[in-house]
Amino acid sequence: MKSFVRDVISTEKNEKKLRKDKRMRACFFTAALLSSSAIAVIVIFISMKGITPFLQEGVDFFSFLFGTTWRKDQGIYGVGFIIVNTLVSSFGALLLSFPLSVLTALFITKIAPKKLSAMMTTVIELLASIPSVVYGVFASGTITLLVSTLAAQFGLVTAGGSSLLAVILLLAIMIFPTITSLSITAIRAVDKDVELGSLALGATRTQTNFKVVLTSAKSGIFAGAILGLGRAFGEATAVAMVAGNKMFGPTFNLFDTTRTLTTTMLSGLKETTGLDYDIRFSAGLVLMAVILLSNLILNLVKKKVGNMK
Amino acid sequence: MNAETIFHVDHLDLFYGDKQALKQIKMDIKRNKITALIGPSGCGKSTFLRCLNRMNDLVDGCKVSGTIELDGNDIHSTQMNVVDLRTKVGMVFQKANPFPMSIYDNIAYGPRCQGIKSKKILDEIVEQSLTKAALWEEVKDRLQESAFGLSGGQQQRLCIARAIAMEPEVILMDEPTSALDPISTSKIEEMAMELKKDYTIIIVTHNMQQAARVSDETAFFLMGEMVEFDETKKIFQQPSDKRTEDYITGRFG
């Protein structure tokens, strides 16, 4: 028999390739180290800047963390109500967006005809790629109008529509594509056999979708929720355009103005120095802690849902 | 049709798009027997099996014509709804497909879908079904644990228990042991022989010894046709068709 492959194989070359493997491993490691050290550097920098107001500028940590007023003109920096506002607006947005996103994802993956499904997937991806400042101008032009009209129905007056409700609606729209597209990916990855198994037991399409498909996809769906929540927590530009930056709180009234951690950090950042500048890093530190805790809570919720014990 | 017959199939044609996958199938499947469907890959035996609980409805471009009667009722008629049919005709798949839930919830799934909520009744269904599937002793202390923690063979028996929980008349098995080791396989075979007292079993298998060991009747499929259908003993000892003989003696397929 004529040999084609045997003659080409050279031990020397293969040894070279194995050495290359080792070099490549070092490459991967360096890349991973670089990216993760960036995170470490950010955390360390923010932390160091963030604690200076308490160590050097005489701000009381307790009254900072639980304070209900933020007035730079009086030098009062209380972030407590802002934490509550941030949680209310972000979880409010999640509450609105999550069910809508999951149902949309189910529709796109399981119910819509192929063409419509492909079209809608593209639309969702487009939505995800719109810059937040564009969402912001949209919100300040339309959502505020909607909110002030709605408020007028109840005989209320808003600050030109800038309000907690406007922030929640804006964030809900902004995180919708994130949660939806991750849910779509998760649902598409569900083993077809599991779905067939459910149908073969006489479960209807709807029962199958809710009890089996969503349960199987819940990991990915919750990853979407966590990313979406992260986006809601972290959004500054667009939120600043409709929040109204109230100086005290917390705000629970949907038609009242509000202030979130991000807008607090952002507004007037470039025109200030000293304590008013440094304290924004403290707010950033708090924001990171809030996000971390929220992710933990969502992960706990994930374990509880879907009968998985 | 006599009382012995549970499935009466006549002039059954099936097309996937333009391709004909089943040609004029005619079969009377007997109650409380194990019927084996054998034949080379792509011969239509699995397709035929999926006609019996209308799983082919889920395949795009699949067209079925002809008669399939379950207990004398046409399963394609408007009076028969597909959910009812599938509760009567359960199915076990080639690859064990437990749901991402606890062992308990896997078994309780079907009954719950039919609206059974009582914990007491569900407890009883779970125990009874697992016992029938010869799994109760192995899992009774870990019912609340994930079904994914079970071995492959246990998962497949769980899927059988899940089908049994619906109290079906027929259990369709699509190569249920092809991914299992010989010990797990023999457990499932033993169970099948036990189960036929209460249910009719129709099993697709690539394993000719398995067909010979467990089944009462065997049908040989080839290129979308049912070549021969008779008592298993007869098929394996004196097949009347030359093609059947060639296949079971390993001359092709």
From TrEMBL, chain B:
Top-rank lineage group of the source organism: Bacteria
Annotated ABC transporter domain residues: 7-248
Matching PROSITE patterns: ABC_TRANSPORTER_1, ABC_TRANSPORTER_2
Keywords: ATP-binding, Nucleotide-binding, Transport
InterPro entries reported in the protein's UniProt record: AAA+_ATPase, ABC_transporter-like_ATP-bd, ABC_transporter-like_CS, P-loop_NTPase, PstB-like
Ribosomal protein among keywords: no
GO molecular function term, any single one: ATP binding
SMART domains found in the cross-reference section: AAA
NCBIfam families from the UniProt entry: 3a0107s01c2
Protein name according to UniProt: Phosphate ABC transporter ATP-binding protein PstB
Lineage of source species: Bacteria, Bacillati, Bacillota, Erysipelotrichia, Erysipelotrichales
